[in-house]
Amino acid sequence: MKKLLTILGLLFFTGNIQAMELPDVQLDIRDYDAIEVPAGTFIPVINTQEISTQYCSEGYKVKFIATNDMYLHDTNIVPRGTEFYGYIEKINAPVVGTNAAMKIKITKMIYKDGYEVPIRGYLYTSNDNLFGGELTPPEKFSRIAHRQSRVKKTTLQIRPGNVRKMGTHTTIETGSNEIIVLTDKAMITHTLTN
């Protein structure tokens, strides 16, 4: 019994010594909540290099720069000069009847101070975010005569033929103004202050 009390006393005494010796190391966490940027948000950017289906392949890395400050709830969440990076996700070669097309995916943005935020988005077009892919003009036009019975005249109608021209390559010029559309919400936990 004496041994049991001695052991319990030692455990209690050493536990108090350890509690006294170890300082309370608590990290100060900033009082800052993440800002949620909703899906479907448009971000205006400028292209930094020429992108073409003629000499670029799928996976080709692209870079864009924000042209304006973007505010949400009085907070500048995308300052001017923020860089956006992505790659060409899909390329369709030109064929007879259709021009070449490409789809560009955006994966991250980097603030001026080097902080990186992952995002999901595409370079926006009204054609399901696909640059190019338009129909080519007809190769030939045919003339068809139409007799008008009331006026007793014949008129010629020009109709496109059934063969179209060969498609051309699609190019996004350097310095062109484009728009990034977010396909998923982005959580911004870092903002820059002046």
What's a quick, concise take on this entry?
By secondary structure, the chain is mainly β. The chain has one helix at residues 2-21; strands spanning 35-37, 42-47, 51-52, 61-66, 70-72, 75-78, 83-92, 101-110, 116-123, 131-132, 141-148, 153-160, 171-172, 177-182, 186-188. 10% of the residues lie in helices and 42% in strands.
Explain the overall architecture.
This protein is mainly beta and about 190 residues long. It has a domain of about 130 residues: Lipocalin (Beta Barrel). Helices cover about 10% and strands about 40% of the residues. The chain is built from one helix and 15 strands. A hairpin with a 5-residue loop joins strand 8 and strand 9.
Task: Give descriptors for this structure.
single chain; 194 residues; mainly beta; Lipocalin; six-stranded antiparallel barrel; two-stranded antiparallel ribbon; 1 helix; 15 strands; elongated
Tell me the layout of helices and strands.
Elements: H1 2-21, E1 35-37, E2 42-47, E3 51-52, E4 61-66, E5 70-72, E6 75-78, E7 83-92, E8 101-110, E9 116-123, E10 131-132, E11 141-148, E12 153-160, E13 171-172, E14 177-182, E15 186-188
Antiparallel strand pairs: 1-15, 2-4, 2-14, 3-13, 4-7, 5-6, 7-8, 8-9, 8-10, 9-14, 11-12
Q: What's the name of the CATH homologous superfamily of the domain at 34-137 and 166-188?
A: Type IV secretion system, VirB10/TraB/TrbI
Query: Could you tell me the strand content as a percent range?
Result: 35-45%
Instruction: Please give the number of β-strands.
Output: 15
Outline the biggest β-sheet. 6 strands, antiparallel, barrel
